[in-house]
Hints:
By secondary structure, chain A is an all-beta fold.
Amino acid sequence: SQQGEEDPQALSIQEGENATMNCSYKTSINNLQWYRQNSGRGLVHLILIRSNEREKHSGRLRVTLDTSKKSSSLLITASRAADTASYFCAFGMEYGNKLVFGAGTILRVKS
Amino acid sequence: ETGVTQTPRHLVMGMTNKKSLKCEQHLGHNAMYWYKQSAKKPLELMFVYNFKEQTENNSVPSRFSPECPNSSHLFLHLHTLQPEDSALYLCASSQDGASSTDTQYFGPGTRLTVL
Protein backbone atom coordinates (compact mmCIF):
# COMPACT_ATOMS: atom_id res chain seq x y z
CA SER A 1 0.00 0.00 0.00
CA GLN A 2 1.20 3.53 -0.73
CA GLN A 3 -0.65 4.93 2.28
CA GLY A 4 1.23 6.87 4.90
CA GLU A 5 1.09 5.84 8.51
CA GLU A 6 0.82 8.30 11.35
CA ASP A 7 1.42 8.01 15.03
CA PRO A 8 0.15 8.51 17.55
CA GLN A 9 -3.46 8.01 16.48
CA ALA A 10 -4.52 10.38 19.25
CA LEU A 11 -2.69 12.82 21.48
CA SER A 12 -3.98 14.77 24.46
CA ILE A 13 -1.85 17.53 26.00
CA GLN A 14 -2.15 20.61 28.18
CA GLU A 15 -2.15 24.09 26.72
CA GLY A 16 1.40 25.40 26.49
CA GLU A 17 2.97 21.99 25.92
CA ASN A 18 4.51 20.91 22.64
CA ALA A 19 2.84 18.34 20.39
CA THR A 20 4.77 16.00 18.10
CA MET A 21 3.20 13.89 15.38
CA ASN A 22 5.00 11.44 13.14
CA CYS A 23 4.39 10.16 9.64
CA SER A 24 6.05 7.34 7.71
CA TYR A 25 5.73 6.36 4.08
CA LYS A 26 6.92 3.56 1.82
CA THR A 27 7.66 4.95 -1.61
CA SER A 28 9.85 7.65 -3.14
CA ILE A 29 8.35 11.09 -2.75
CA ASN A 30 8.67 14.52 -4.26
CA ASN A 31 7.40 16.35 -1.19
CA LEU A 32 5.53 15.87 2.07
CA GLN A 33 2.76 18.12 3.30
CA TRP A 34 0.84 18.54 6.53
CA TYR A 35 -2.83 19.44 6.68
CA ARG A 36 -5.16 20.24 9.54
CA GLN A 37 -8.88 19.40 9.77
CA ASN A 38 -11.31 20.74 12.32
CA SER A 39 -14.14 18.39 13.17
CA GLY A 40 -16.34 17.68 10.13
CA ARG A 41 -14.71 20.40 8.02
CA GLY A 42 -12.37 20.51 5.06
CA LEU A 43 -8.61 20.24 5.28
CA VAL A 44 -6.37 23.28 5.51
CA HIS A 45 -2.82 23.21 4.18
CA LEU A 46 -0.20 23.96 6.84
CA ILE A 47 3.26 23.41 5.40
CA LEU A 48 5.13 21.66 2.58
CA ILE A 49 8.64 20.26 2.73
CA ARG A 50 10.41 19.10 -0.41
CA SER A 51 12.38 15.88 -0.62
CA ASN A 52 15.69 17.76 -0.72
CA GLU A 53 14.89 19.70 2.46
CA ARG A 54 15.44 18.47 6.00
CA GLU A 55 13.65 21.02 8.14
CA LYS A 56 11.15 23.80 7.69
CA HIS A 57 9.51 26.30 10.04
CA SER A 58 6.27 28.27 9.87
CA GLY A 59 5.27 30.19 12.98
CA ARG A 60 4.82 27.63 15.77
CA LEU A 61 5.16 24.74 13.34
CA ARG A 62 8.36 22.82 12.70
CA VAL A 63 8.52 20.01 10.17
CA THR A 64 11.40 17.62 9.64
CA LEU A 65 11.92 15.11 6.87
CA ASP A 66 14.28 12.14 6.89
CA THR A 67 14.20 10.52 3.46
CA SER A 68 16.59 7.76 4.51
CA LYS A 69 14.09 6.63 7.15
CA LYS A 70 11.08 7.64 5.04
CA SER A 71 9.62 9.60 7.90
CA SER A 72 8.53 13.11 8.85
CA SER A 73 7.49 14.80 12.05
CA LEU A 74 5.34 17.83 12.80
CA LEU A 75 6.06 19.76 15.99
CA ILE A 76 3.59 22.33 17.28
CA THR A 77 5.18 24.44 20.00
CA ALA A 78 3.37 26.23 22.82
CA SER A 79 0.06 24.58 21.90
CA ARG A 80 -3.27 26.36 22.30
CA ALA A 81 -6.80 25.03 22.76
CA ALA A 82 -7.51 26.26 19.21
CA ASP A 83 -4.93 23.78 17.89
CA THR A 84 -7.37 20.97 18.72
CA ALA A 85 -7.96 19.24 15.37
CA SER A 86 -6.92 16.24 13.26
CA TYR A 87 -3.56 16.51 11.52
CA PHE A 88 -2.79 14.63 8.33
CA CYS A 89 0.43 14.10 6.47
CA ALA A 90 0.21 13.77 2.71
CA PHE A 91 3.02 12.81 0.44
CA GLY A 92 3.38 13.84 -3.17
CA MET A 93 4.52 11.03 -5.43
CA GLU A 94 7.75 11.41 -7.33
CA TYR A 95 5.82 11.77 -10.59
CA GLY A 96 2.39 13.23 -11.22
CA ASN A 97 0.12 15.33 -9.06
CA LYS A 98 -1.30 12.74 -6.67
CA LEU A 99 -1.27 13.26 -2.93
CA VAL A 100 -1.53 10.20 -0.67
CA PHE A 101 -2.83 10.94 2.81
CA GLY A 102 -2.10 9.27 6.10
CA ALA A 103 -4.82 8.24 8.55
CA GLY A 104 -4.26 11.27 10.75
CA THR A 105 -3.51 12.13 14.36
CA ILE A 106 -6.29 13.53 16.53
CA LEU A 107 -4.83 16.25 18.76
CA ARG A 108 -6.69 17.55 21.80
CA VAL A 109 -5.27 20.52 23.66
CA LYS A 110 -6.82 21.01 27.08
CA SER A 111 -7.06 24.48 28.56
CA GLU B 1 -13.05 30.36 4.15
CA THR B 2 -10.82 28.70 1.57
CA GLY B 3 -12.64 29.89 -1.56
CA VAL B 4 -14.10 26.45 -2.24
CA THR B 5 -17.79 25.93 -1.50
CA GLN B 6 -19.77 22.71 -1.46
CA THR B 7 -23.51 22.10 -1.47
CA PRO B 8 -25.38 20.57 0.13
CA ARG B 9 -23.49 20.34 3.44
CA HIS B 10 -25.58 17.37 4.54
CA LEU B 11 -27.45 14.81 2.45
CA VAL B 12 -29.51 11.77 3.41
CA MET B 13 -30.60 9.51 0.59
CA GLY B 14 -32.05 6.10 0.00
CA MET B 15 -30.29 3.48 -2.05
CA THR B 16 -32.60 4.02 -5.03
CA ASN B 17 -32.31 7.82 -5.11
CA LYS B 18 -30.33 9.94 -7.53
CA LYS B 19 -28.66 13.05 -6.16
CA SER B 20 -25.78 15.36 -7.04
CA LEU B 21 -23.07 17.05 -5.02
CA LYS B 22 -21.83 20.43 -6.20
CA CYS B 23 -18.47 22.10 -5.73
CA GLU B 24 -17.50 25.61 -6.81
CA GLN B 25 -14.13 27.31 -6.47
CA HIS B 26 -13.56 31.06 -6.65
CA LEU B 27 -9.76 30.91 -6.80
CA GLY B 28 -9.17 30.81 -10.55
CA HIS B 29 -7.70 27.31 -10.28
CA ASN B 30 -7.61 24.80 -13.11
CA ALA B 31 -7.50 21.50 -11.24
CA MET B 32 -10.31 20.06 -9.12
CA TYR B 33 -10.50 16.91 -7.01
CA TRP B 34 -13.07 14.68 -5.31
CA TYR B 35 -12.03 12.84 -2.14
CA LYS B 36 -13.93 10.42 0.10
CA GLN B 37 -13.30 10.48 3.84
CA SER B 38 -14.71 7.54 5.78
CA ALA B 39 -14.47 7.15 9.53
CA LYS B 40 -11.06 5.94 10.72
CA LYS B 41 -9.71 5.64 7.16
CA PRO B 42 -7.24 7.79 5.24
CA LEU B 43 -8.59 10.28 2.77
CA GLU B 44 -9.19 8.50 -0.57
CA LEU B 45 -8.70 10.31 -3.87
CA MET B 46 -11.61 9.58 -6.24
CA PHE B 47 -11.29 11.80 -9.31
CA VAL B 48 -9.02 14.54 -10.65
CA TYR B 49 -9.90 17.06 -13.34
CA ASN B 50 -7.29 19.27 -14.96
CA PHE B 51 -8.49 22.02 -17.31
CA LYS B 52 -11.91 20.26 -17.41
CA GLU B 53 -10.42 16.93 -18.51
CA GLN B 54 -10.52 13.92 -16.21
CA THR B 55 -6.95 12.86 -15.48
CA GLU B 56 -7.51 10.42 -12.65
CA ASN B 57 -10.19 7.87 -11.81
CA ASN B 58 -9.03 5.94 -8.79
CA SER B 59 -11.03 2.75 -9.53
CA VAL B 60 -14.24 4.39 -8.37
CA PRO B 61 -17.49 2.40 -8.84
CA SER B 62 -19.68 3.61 -11.69
CA ARG B 63 -22.47 4.57 -9.26
CA PHE B 64 -20.34 7.71 -8.76
CA SER B 65 -20.27 9.86 -11.90
CA PRO B 66 -18.25 13.10 -11.96
CA GLU B 67 -18.88 16.07 -14.23
CA CYS B 68 -16.72 19.14 -14.76
CA PRO B 69 -18.47 21.64 -17.06
CA ASN B 70 -15.82 24.32 -16.51
CA SER B 71 -12.76 24.94 -14.37
CA SER B 72 -14.82 26.50 -11.57
CA HIS B 73 -17.48 23.83 -11.11
CA LEU B 74 -17.35 20.15 -10.27
CA PHE B 75 -20.26 17.80 -9.70
CA LEU B 76 -20.52 14.29 -8.34
CA HIS B 77 -23.67 12.51 -9.50
CA LEU B 78 -24.82 9.69 -7.24
CA HIS B 79 -27.17 6.82 -8.06
CA THR B 80 -28.03 3.49 -6.46
CA LEU B 81 -25.55 4.00 -3.65
CA GLN B 82 -24.82 1.53 -0.87
CA PRO B 83 -24.79 2.19 2.90
CA GLU B 84 -20.98 1.80 2.88
CA ASP B 85 -20.82 4.89 0.63
CA SER B 86 -21.82 7.01 3.62
CA ALA B 87 -18.92 9.36 4.23
CA LEU B 88 -17.71 12.96 4.06
CA TYR B 89 -17.11 13.90 0.42
CA LEU B 90 -14.52 16.62 0.03
CA CYS B 91 -13.82 18.74 -3.00
CA ALA B 92 -10.48 20.47 -3.51
CA SER B 93 -8.85 22.67 -6.10
CA SER B 94 -5.29 23.63 -7.00
CA GLN B 95 -3.64 25.98 -9.45
CA ASP B 96 -3.04 23.62 -12.34
CA GLY B 97 -2.62 20.09 -11.01
CA ALA B 98 0.67 19.64 -12.83
CA SER B 99 2.59 18.80 -9.70
CA SER B 100 1.86 17.48 -6.24
CA THR B 101 3.60 20.57 -4.83
CA ASP B 102 0.52 22.55 -5.84
CA THR B 103 -1.31 23.42 -2.62
CA GLN B 104 -4.80 21.97 -2.55
CA TYR B 105 -7.60 24.07 -1.12
CA PHE B 106 -10.48 22.08 0.34
CA GLY B 107 -14.16 22.81 0.65
CA PRO B 108 -16.04 22.06 3.90
CA GLY B 109 -17.41 18.79 2.55
CA THR B 110 -20.80 17.14 2.12
CA ARG B 111 -21.75 14.68 4.85
CA LEU B 112 -23.57 11.90 2.98
CA THR B 113 -25.71 9.26 4.69
CA VAL B 114 -27.10 6.40 2.61
CA LEU B 115 -30.00 4.56 4.21
